[in-house]
Structure formats: structure tokens, C-alpha cells
Amino acid sequence: MPSAPSCPALRSIFQTQPGQRQRRTGNQFLATSFSEKKKKVATRAAVILPWERGAQGQDMRAAEARLEEAVGLTASIGLVVVRKAALILRTRRSATLLGQGQIDSLKPVVEEDGIDVLVVDSKLTPAQQRNLETSLGCKVIDRTGLILDIFGARAATKEGTLQVELAHLEYQKSRLVRLWTHLERQRGGFGFLGGPGETQIEADRRMISERIVRLKKDLEQVRRTRGLHRQARKRVPFPVVALVGYTNAGKSTLFNALTGATVYAKDQLFATLDPTMRAITLPSGRRVILSDTVGFISDLPTELIAAFRATLEEVAEADIILHVRDIAHPDSAAQKKDVLGVLESMARDDMLEPDWAGRVVEVLNKVDLLGGARTLPQTEETVAISAMTGDGLEVLLGRMDQLLTANMEVVRYRLPLSDGAASSWLYQHGEVLQRDDKEEQMDITVRLLAEDRARFERLFTDITPLLA
């Protein structure tokens, strides 16, 4: 991908793709997506990227990559993106962010294409958001609101739900005036100069503030008991492998590639799991749970960092962390630094075990864009793959096998059928590979960590391993 182009050159990026129809070329609003052909009624969205000439930090990312990221984020909450564009800002207008000419160009696009939601890939003030909605006649969402929607949909644990709600309330608190612009500003009967609208705003703000205080107390309690929750990981019958990485790094493609051929369609054990969790079988025959996570996002608003970390609870419970990188991306090294920085901060706050780094496998994805997996050196910490073509996937599965069995032993024990405590202990702490029940005893083959085997044989001294 080329480096970030100068603003005048941005026009060449947004060409109509094959199968798309070109309508309006003014202000670089060029492409209409394939989704527009669908007859199914859906919420239609347009995505715009306000691009400031020479803005600090924006020169680091190509406009095309940033816009595609925003399109992907928008699609992830179920919106159908029918238009996308980068709009060059000469100056940030305090009232609307965009210039009046740009707003005038957007109006017919919104009307002709039936746009329900305009996603602005920038932070908007409450006044800017309200004024844009008034001018364009459609709902407007800024970058912060979009990301909050994504986090809210993905937060699963108590801490995640609380953290996202807290961020959402703090975001909404400053935007309450938007909810009451339809009320007439009449003088109230109790001497309030602002009238009923302002009175309701103050009441809502008070309720939100009280809820925020309560949420912070609840979060503190959750953090104090986090150590107890981590014990639940040891009771999971199968190891967990978590995918982390930037949005558009290919995590979902890799997830589908690994699970598509190995998922147990009739296995009721996994029938009720979240759609982002699937069972796969490694070359050794060992079954693991593969867990997808929310993609990392560039330029994450600072007020959302805590909420984002809370969506990564799956990583804290993982036996292996697959860090998926788009090795062909021009900012791949910077993205790697961002991901590791978040994981390091989670470890400092006791959200990850201190030895988390030893459980990370760096997956260098999209090698098909660079000539194939053989073009990149592979180490014990890295595996080069193409999730799209399948190149290197067998090597990746084998590496996962090695990590999971590196410090494990396969042992066969003979237990009395009446000894439920011993068999229960083995099921809870190990992976039972085979069990043969006889009249009064059972032979059970189990894979255990070396330290767990020693602990079992200390607890149950009358049970000894069978010879192979």
C-alpha cells in the first residue's frame, strides 16, 4: 500500500470499483458498493473521512487504509455502506466541522441514495453533530459513537458490560441537549428561565451522574475479585486460543479458514457458544476452542481505551494468543507496537498473567501479497501465512500443538470405579484422551501438565501410573 498521499492526490484513490455505478463525482463521492444491489431493506449508511491537510499524525496512515477501516467498522454493526469518501478540510468549522460547500454537495447524495446514517470518521462536538443532522436530514454518528456501539455489542462479561456502559454514559452526558431540541423554550411555571426542556436535561444529567458513580463502584469491586474469576479458566475442558490484531488484519478470514473445515456441526457441546467461538482439531487430534476478539482500531479515542480493554476478556482466559498482523500494511510495525502496548497495560493491571508474552504467536498474515510464506523468515515466535489462500495454515496449527503440549505428559492410570474424587480431579485438571470402564475399575488416559501430574500423585498416593 502506498504511503499517505498529499491531499490533492486523494481524488485518484476513490475510483468506482467493478460492478459499481458512478453517480456524483463532486467532492470525491464516487463509489457505490455492491450492497446497493440488495433488495433486502437495510439501514443504509455513508462513510466520510474528514482529511486535514498536513494534520499531525494523519500523514502516518494512507487515506485509503483509514477510510476502509471506517467502512469495516460501520459494516460490523449491521449498516450497509453504499457511499464512502474522503473530504479535504481546509479548516475545521466549529459549527459543522465540514465546509458549507461540502454540506451542500452531501445533501443530494443523502436524498438520492436514501442514506439513513452518515458516519463521520472524526470526533464531533454535540453542536456539530446536531447541526449536521439538521442540515442533512439524517442521523449522524461520529467515530466515538460508532466504536461505542461496537464495544457494546461485544462486551460479554460483567466488567466489559460495566466499562462500556460507563464510557457510553460519559459520552452521552454532554449530548443530552440534542434529545430536547424539539421542546418549546417556554418559561416554566416555577421560575425556571430555561423552560421544560432545560429542566428535563438537568434531571437526566443528574440521573446519569448518579449512575456513573454507581458504575465506578461496581467496577472497583469487580477488579478486586478478578483473581477469583481467573480460576474459572482452569475448569474449561479444552484449551482456549484467542485471536488478536488490528481491524482488517485478516482475523475473521483466519478464523473462518481454521474453523470451516474442522468445526463440529453436530457437536451440541459448542452449539450454544457465542458465534465468535468455535471448536477446532489440531494435527495431534487435540481439540481447542478458537476465540475471536474485537479488532484493534487506529487512533482510538482516549476515553474509550478502558472500554476497549474490557472487550478483550477472552485474551485473559487464553492458553495461546495468536497476534494476527497484516504484514503487507505500510504501518504494520506501528500496529504491532500498539497491540503489544495494550496487552502490556492489561498485564500491569492484573488482567493478564505475568507470563503472557510466552503464550503469544505472531501470525504474519497476507503473505500472498508479498510473494508467499517462503519469502519471510520464520522463528519460534512467528508463523507466516495467508488466511486467504491457506498458505502456512498447517504450520500454524502445528505450532499451536507444540505450545500446548510443550510441558505436558500423557499418563495412564487405573482407578476404582468407586473413586469419584480421583477421576473428577483428572477431568477437571487434565484432558482425558481415553477411558475404559471394567467391572470394578477404569483405565483412564489423560494429558496433564507436569506439575499437575505431580500434584495428582501426591493427593492420591494409592494410585500409580500404568506402564506403557
TrEMBL record:
RNA-binding as UniProt keyword: no
Main localization, broad class: cytoplasm
UniProt binding sites for GTP: 245-252, 270-274, 292-295, 365-368
Gene Ontology molecular function terms on file: GTP binding; GTPase activity; metal ion binding; ribosome binding
Highest taxon in the source lineage: Bacteria
Similarity remark: Belongs to the TRAFAC class OBG-HflX-like GTPase superfamily. HflX GTPase family.
HAMAP family membership: GTPase_HflX
Protein name (Swiss-Prot/TrEMBL): GTPase HflX
Source species: Acetobacter vaccinii
